[in-house]
Amino acid sequence: MNRKLIPRKYSRRDFLKWGVRGTLGIALAGSALSTLRPQQAVAGTGRPFLTPNPGPVARPDGQTAVRHLRFGATDGFLSLPGRRVNSPAGGVYMFGFVLGEVTDSIGDFIQKYKGRVRTPAPIVDVTENQDVYITLTNLGFEQRPDLDDSHTIHWHGFRNPNSVFDGVPEVSISVPVARDFPYFFRPRDEGTYMYHCHFEDTEHVQMGMDGIVFVRPQPGAGITPYHAYADFSTAFDREYTLLLNEVDTIPHDNLLAVQGFVWSDYKPNYWVINGRSYPDTLYTDLDLANEVDAVAAELKNRQPVSSLIQANPGEKILLRMASLGYEQHAMQMMGIRMRVVGQDATFLGPLAYDTHTIYIGPGEARDAIFVAPPYNPNLPGGTDAAGDYNVYWFKNRNYQRLVNDREPGLGGMITQVRVYAPNPDNSPSLPTQEWPNQTFPRPTV
Amino acid sequence: MLRKRLKWSVLGLLALVVGLLSATRPGSVFGGPTFAPAALPNIGLVCTTGSVSGTQVVFNLTTATGFYSGPDGNQVFMWGFGDADSGGAFQMPGPVLCVHEGDTVTINLTNTLPDPVSLVFPGQENVAAAGDQQGLFTWEAAANTGSASYTFTAGHPGTFLYESGTQPYKQIQMGLYGMLVVRPAMGDNFAYNDPDTQFRNEFMLLLHEIDPELHARVERGEPYIVSERHDRYWTINGRSMPDLIADNFVDWLKGQPYGALVRVEAGDSLPVLLRFANAGWENHPFHPHGNHMTVIARDGQPLPQKFQNFTTTIGSGQAYDLLFRWDNVEAWDVSANPLPVPMPPAGPFPDRQNVVYKDGVTFYSGNPYLGEGGATAYQDSFPPGTTVFNECGEFYFPWHSHALDEVQNFDEGFGGMLTLVRVDPPGGCP
């Protein structure tokens, strides 16, 4: 079976777009669409476009706080090495979720975020027994106005007491364009999960409608938000969500060109962590905020979640790993031993194990904790805005997945662990993390 | 009537599934303390018991050719094992051989294929073999008319594969595989000699992949180039979604007798046992919706420490025994404990003006409360033309490979290696 690459010169989509835009243009009498759209509020701060978990707050009725989130489903473009958005090849067409304001009307939400997707989907950070409401709004596709796909939210691994909130359209409902639907979850079991759209799942998940959701244990009796599970052995100082995906650019290009794809032909050519492929995995939040180069400027409003792992010596670092690609991955930490304490949002207890390579299949999750080694100026390292560091690599052991399509050199599913030299007074140089994946120095807004 | 439950259309077979199920109360006809099927069970594991004399069990298998019938209408040439004691007709997978721990098991194989064929039993030890000729792994039945015989003592309980030991890259791919179940001394409703492995009902989930082009080459007598394999169909129990949620032995799937629909009752005091095995070449990450699974055994060996997960990657040739239950943990009730979601001003949640029932077909009752809705309560509020496969407000959740490129019938989604679990309200459907 031939895998046919559709040249991006095709204009069927453009005709559709121009048609709709023309209609819109008449309707809006020339109002400047682009000026109506503010930059996403958190752009430039490095915050992974989700408000930090406020943690459990006591309510008069004794229950913990309620989280209200607003998700929009729409499309946009991904920036990858060899497929920069502002290059002749163009970015990779994506679907995905954006985070909106709970109070926005559907119309306002569409005006602000349609066509401005982020990859991966927002990190959802909640606490055990906290009522979680996620209102999903289908914003429609800017590039494919003819495509009226519905969307859903499937919280993958959730012990779901309702099929209607499980987000599988064939056995419940899905959300059509320009409509809202309220999803409700009461998480009873802490751990690392993931979520994704289940409408035409093979296509929508590969197109980018997936993210990590994790549940912190109910605090109390010595358990804090800095425990992965309600067990003292899972304490950590700093945490990173690492969502593994592959990208086969052909179905993405075909969708943009209004062409079909035979999904049993799936054969990825990019491998990403949090939507970024090496060397993009090394950019810090500050690099993006300052738009240090053209790549950082593209990542800033497309792939805002850092894939770089920073640590002070001696800190316990929690890696919340999940995979929503369709391949199995062996992720290897070079030079640091990891302890896998959780699997599939389940505390492993006596089954916890030490390892240097974590084997993870599609739809699986692992919680691994490592202790950052002491800083040693004689070991390999470098210097960035946060100071001098030793470098350790976290990589896919399958070298075929350490490439960016046909680009020369190293690429793909590999990132660094940077362990920073302490300050002269021996205090740690990195401040406390305010949200998962936050890197330092903190950008000033 | 907007609701056309038994409409015979493209998806009419789905309707028939529900119709057939409605005649069956859970637990009444399958599983249970004896495994000899008194009547043909509609869903669940179907045992072939062979000729039993004390602890001597004899099976007679024959090879046969037939076709995989895909939900997209494609027919793929297959080889399979048939049960010679009941006619020896082609089937895929082969008969489920059920024996007891300590039994002396003899399997006589008669060959009809143009290749020599043999049987191997991964996980069994000291297998005595006799046949027409010695092959690479074991004694073989010669091509066309040969025969072979294998005898072993089923030393310990568990879930195992049996499969061809001759040119396995071709013959297993062509369909020469099946499941062997060894029951423990503790009882037929236990997976192992462990009281915590007792189950209400049991289900087989036997995974495989199919490359139709390679099979067509075998059918045409052309060279079989295994390095060119490119899977297009993914099967559970020899069927693909949605065929696989049809009942066992439906007459439109002649060579694919075993369904894969799983059915539990909310809050049942006992779990169901899922006997997973992977006869394919790829590892399949199998993901259950609705609740975690409890992993109790791998490759016929009970685990010293059971654990829970929400995805089990079942490696090629591996077997896993998993327990599943579903509890109505929040006990949502339309009056006593309503869901805390916004209620539209008119009509029940969800507001049907603002949702989509994909392709106008749904397994959803229209009511988010377990045991509500379904056949009577909400039928008039579905959009016109919606086909509803729901009896009494039971829930359905999909279970599937999370390598989502395998949830396809060639290029058609919500197919392939995907089945459903049906969760009935306590007491079952009225």
Descriptors:
heterodimer, A: 445 residues, mainly beta, Immunoglobulin-like, 7-stranded mixed β-sheet, 6-stranded mixed β-sheet, 11% helix, globular, B: 430 residues, 26 strands, disordered N terminus
What does the model show?
- The complex is a heterodimer of chains A (445) and B (430).
- The termini of chain A are far apart.
- Chain A has helices spanning 12-28, 106-113, 201-206, 249-256, 285-289, 294-300; strands spanning 66-78, 92-100, 124-127, 131-138, 154-156, 180-185, 191-196, 210-216, 238-247, 270-273, 309-311, 316-323, 329-333, 338-343, 346-347, 353-355, 357-360, 365-371, 381-384, 387-396, 414-420.
- By secondary structure, chain A is mainly β.
- In chain A, strands 9, 10, 12, 14, 15, 16 and 18 form a 7-stranded mixed β-sheet that branches. In chain A, strands 11, 13, 17, 19, 20 and 21 form a 6-stranded mixed β-sheet that branches.
- The model of chain A is unreliable at 4-10 and 20-64 (pLDDT under 50).
- Chain A is globular, with a radius of gyration of 21 Å.
- Helices cover 11% and strands 29% of the residues of chain A.
- Chain A has a domain at 242-420: Cupredoxins -  blue copper proteins (Immunoglobulin-like, Sandwich), CATH 2.60.40.420.
- Chain A contains 6 helices and 21 strands.
- Chain B has 430 residues and is mainly beta.
- Helix content of chain B is 7%, strand content 33%.
- In chain B, the strands form 7 sheets. In chain B, strands 1, 2, 3, 5, 6 and 9 form a 6-stranded mixed β-sheet that branches. In chain B, strands 13-12-15-20-17-18 form a 6-stranded mixed β-sheet, with no helix packed on it.
- Chain B is globular, with a radius of gyration of 22 Å.
- Mean pLDDT of chain B is 88; it is low at 1-40 and 343-347.
- Chains A and B meet through strand 6 and helix 3 of A and strand 18, strand 21 and strand 23 of B.
